[in-house]
Amino acid sequence: MQLRKLARHNETYIFLVIIVIAFIIQARSGQFFTPNNIVDIASALIVPGLMAIGVFMVIISGGIDVSFPALASLSIYVTTKFFLDIGYEGGIFLPIIMVCAIGAVLGAINGFLIATFKLPPLIVTLGTASVFRGFMQGALSSRQLAVIPRGMSSFGTSALFIARNRVSGLSSRMPPSFLILAAVLIIAFFVLKYTMFGRGLYAIGGNETSARRAGFNVWLIKFLLYVGVGMAASLAGFIRVCMMTQCHPTNMLGMEMMVIAGVVLGGTAITGGAGSLLGCMLGTILIVMVQNSLILMGIPTFWQGFSVGMLIIIGTGVSAYQVMRMNDPARIIRAKTGRLADETE
To answer: What are the φ and ψ backbone dihedral angles of 161, each rounded to 5 degrees?
Structure first.
């Protein structure tokens, strides 16, 4: 009975795919299960993982956001430049507050336009992505900042622990920002499972009209949703800059495809209303693992784009098949007949 329940969940198949790919890579390279490689994958997961949480919430609400890399780039560039200009020598507390505040304001622009005027989220976020990018490159004359404030640099280069490979002698550090990813995951899980806001996201994604009739404040939920996405994306951008110890204004542009691919691969219905946080993270882990492992096996980096593109096609195909299967009249009749039979017995 338990196996039958597990077989119904997309997360089970994603987990099995991860295990199979891990053993294939191990057989090819002999390096996958080494301590330093596991830490490298965990470290590479932090930034896309934070972004994926926000994107996941948007997709289950029936929306889409492709502006978050440009939003994060603008937020972190303004923050880094400001603290460099004033000669800031403190810790990361104030920069985090500032970058999240800017992200919230930029996200609120998306939320206001989508919730108030009922505009298509894809069109709005495509437009704001261009606006954010253009403002950063035009009005701010953005350029690469080879130096960042000392507190940010210290945070990015510190380590919770260091994992060493005794055979190769290579070592990798686990950044403390991994704890931020874990904390955001816990908060997101609590919000989705135990709050009216979380239930409202699923309800809106299933049927917005029904959600409104059920008493959910659709405008407020959508507005706060995009504010939250802006904060999560900006926090991810902050961590990326700290880990790189430099700020490149266009470094994160183009990440939207990788992040959305991971969310959809995890079983989140592209039409909204269905999906799990576990599946979202498993899908993102799969994307990160494939990207890192191509390098590990010595495969040219241009194949990364090909691999991610194939995963996007497969993920959206699976999602579309799941939606079609759920809406199949014959399946609905069989499910209702089965429930009636159980009640009769």
So the answer is: -160, 165
Spatial neighbors of 307 by CB under 8 A, at least 6 apart, are 290, 291, 294
Helices (H), the chain: 2-7, 10-29, 35-60, 68-85, 93-117, 121-134, 150-157, 177-194, 196-206, 208-213, 218-244, 256-265, 277-296, 302-326, 329-344
For residue 274, the enclosing domain spans: 2-344
Our count of domains for the chain comes to: 1
Nearest to 251 by CA among 262, 261, 239, 264: 239
The tokens for 280 are 């979202």
How does residue 225 score in pLDDT terms, banded at 50, 70 and 90? Answer: very high
Report the CATH number at residue 335: 1.10.3470
pTM exceeding the 0.85 threshold for the entire prediction:
yes
Q: Would you state the structure tokens that stand for residue 236, as one six-digit string? A: 């991810």
Q: What is the mean pLDDT of residues 210-218?
A: 92
* pLDDT tens digits, 290-333: 888 777 776 776 676 777 777 767 766 666 666 666 666 655 55
Cβ neighbours, 10 Å, residue 141: 8
